[in-house]
Specification:
Blueprint lengths: L42 H9 L1 H4 L21 E6 L5 H9 L3 E6 L3 H14 L4 E4 L3 H7 L5 E7 L17 H10 E11 L2 H13 L3 E3 L4 H5 L9 H8 L5 E7 L3
Parallel strand pairs: 1-2, 1-4, 2-3, 4-5
Antiparallel strand pairs: 5-7, 6-7
Helix pairs in contact: 1-4
Bound molecules: S-adenosylmethionine (SAM).
Length: 253
Amino acid sequence: MNQPAPDSNDHHTSASDGTTTPDDDGFYRGSFFGRRKGHKLRLHQADLVATLLPRLALDIAHPAPADLRTLFTPAVDTVRVEIGFGGGEHLVAEALAHPRTGFIGCEPYVNGMARILTEIDEKEIGNIRLLAGDAAELLAWAPPHSFARIDLIHPDPWPKRRHWKRRFVQDATLASMARVLVPSGEFRFVCDIEDYVAWTLWHLMRSPDFTWTAERAADWQSPWPNYTMTRYGRKATREGRKAAYVISKRTAG
Ligand SMILES: C[S@@+](CC[C@H](N)C(=O)[O-])C[C@H]1O[C@@H](n2cnc3c(N)ncnc32)[C@H](O)[C@@H]1O
């Protein structure tokens, strides 16, 4: 995916689909501040966006079913979420490895959505549902205790201090995640930007809802077992940055 990282490209962003009002800087309100559109889709991709996406997309304009497992056929035992899946490498690998788990992938960037639709179509994956929008809206829509795990992998870093409020991890989004995670559910966070890792640990530590599970450095310095590296993960390695792999558990009660 050739999506520019939104740390230096403020002027590129525009209200391209008109679904949300841009703020003073030309960015969307809510938790998504990046680009929705990139290069033109290939014909087959455009066709999948027109035909397959409507079948897999969640309808968050209407109230959620009480049990989100009912969104999946064949039946699943638990539901997980990946926020900002980008090219979808991690989400696709997890869905294939865990056929009894339903996955909701959330990605506002149309080209990422087109890419995962191609994979879902080619590999005949039946346990992924999609939201082409802001994950904060998914978290607000879902009933309490819906998800066993929420993954946020290489989120947009927003390194400039004046943009920190655009980072996905905030007190409010952690509280939203806590509401929709099952007791002892997990929030997993991967990031190669030191400052954002520190930011997230600080928010997790002051949250009454989460406990960081690491007991030794090795627990967060290397990927958890069977982790699938993403495009942004490979880019970080190429550029000499080491990622942190933070697993935090929903605090009981
Ligand atoms: C730096 S990219 C990483 C993509 C992918 N996770 C990876 O590791 O290759 C961050 C992604 O998060 C998406 N994103 C940003 N804000 C979001 C939000 N509020 N809800 C869902 N996705 C979001 C962006 O569109 C972008 O594709």
